Amino acid sequence: MKFDTFSEYLARMETISGRLELASQLASLLRELSPSETPPALYMVQGQLYPPFVGAPMGMASRLLLRAMEKALEESGKDPALRSRLGDLLAESGDPGILAERLNMGTGMGKMGLGEIHAALLVIAKQAGSGSQEEKISRLADLFLSLSPLSARYLARFVMGRLRLGVGDSTIVDALARTLIETPLEDTVGWKAEMKAVRQKVEDAYNLCSDLGRVGEMLRKEGLVGLDHIRPSVGFPIRMALCERLGSGAEIIEKLGKAAVESKYDGFRCQIHCDGTSVRIFSRNLEETTGMFPELAREARALLGRRTAIFEGEALGYDAENDSYHPFQVTITRKRKHNILEKSEEIPLKCLVFDLLFLDGEAVMDQPFSERRRRLESLFPAHRRKLSEREVPPEHVFGASRLIVTSDPHEVDLFFDEVVEEGFEGIIAKRLDGVYTAGSRNFNWIKLKRSYKGALSDTVDLVLIGYYRGKGLRTKLGIGAVLGAVFDPATGEFLSIARIGSGLTEEKWKELREMLDELRTNGPLQGVRSGLVPDFWVVPKYVVTVLADELTRSPVHMAGRTEGEEEGYALRFPRMVSGPREDKGPEDATTVTEIKRLFDLQRQRGLRE
Ligand code: AMP
Description:
The protein is α+β, with helices and mostly antiparallel strands. It is 38% helix and 20% strand. The chain contains 21 helices and 22 strands. It is globular, with a radius of gyration of 25 Å.
């Protein structure tokens, strides 16, 4: 496919506001692509050059982009006065894409293909070292010269990391599924049924490899059967299993019968991949964190040797002096790009492993939890049987999480109390015969947190979708409150639930405003629905943890509001307990279903009290 044709699709997608229509347009694009063009097209639609877990967005500085434009203008013999005003013009339009389009740099004669542009961008992204900047500028200028103005629009936005089509993973999964549906659209019931079944298969494959490009390529090559080739593999993060919540030990045992119950540790979730020679670690939102946690990589390599494995655990800062773990606020300081070794000596990590997904070339995710745990303990013994012991002996980094197996609700409650007294968040109960359900939240894992026992409040993770100008004392900060939303995985939408104006220090508010300014859009992006209109809309990207007094029904917000209903859910007295969290992406925010569940838990508790 010519890059110009690809750009025409992007232009159409940009004007669409409904998710269904967006998926349908993306499906039309996919149908026109060859199998090998599918991955680059999907990565670029996501604003990336590789699958997002590779973590290499282009994010070129505007200075470089402007110099590339200047060079392209010079080579095409355009007005020199224009060249010297590029900086002002960019400031005026605020959009590198619109500027690039208006400059009319290219001849459009090159007719480069999508694959060629992607390959050229890969070369530009990889260039490093002395002279690399000039080389980048000159290569980018060449691209501008060979593209149409419309293509220049998308190229400029892409290289600056500002494509912002608002196409989430679930829209891409929808679109991929649509390319396979054979039932005619007129047969609404049949179409929906086929779509549901096919979509589930596409999503399952995605959950196993986190690479929509790979899934797309297989589908274009071999259709639905091609997905059978996608198996868990070392090096491709598996989308992580998530927990449901319940309110007491009795409810947990009623739901699971005899269950394994573990401490819920509050640190970094790590999915550790060992390929027999090297180790890679992925965070909960599938970013690679290997470089940040050298002691985990080192010990995993020593322990596993030539074996292949994927396992998961929670890494916590360890306080050797008191032989205890650090709270999350201290552990989080290990998340850094600089001075990693010094910091790892100051706050070493211990990793409490709790699941095994792959071992010696074999995926074990479909085995019952009890069997996975048995095999996990053969790799990482469970040292902690008594309260006085630690999960990990002082000289080691890894140890199996603390766990009891019981069918007695009182024992669950007692274990919960013990764990809370030690300062942990609560417990996670696991269904003994449950499989590891990649990428989904269900009752195979159930959390019971401190906050839902007793106190009314519980934290939720909200995506920021807009912010308000500061008033009064906050005028000087330029921000007075943010608008937070929950995620609806069924529709891919972000639905407003709270306007939050407290919880941060002045300094943190200022930092947050600067971060949000980078994401400002002219209106709500498609998929963002809010009952309130903030002063500035932003791309849903940052997730903050919010504490509130209670959940109420409210006509103001959109969360949980179905068609015909006038009330959604709202948080009463919300306050931020953390600034933007690096470990959660927008689709990891609390979901509408979780909010409904929390609301029910709150109501039941109200009835009991
Ligand atoms: P939450 O983020 O509140 O939904 O809780 C789920 C998180 O708890 C997981 O993503 C893990 O990072 C963490 N966690 C801590 N201890 C465990 C455990 N024993 N088993 C599974 N997850 C755990």
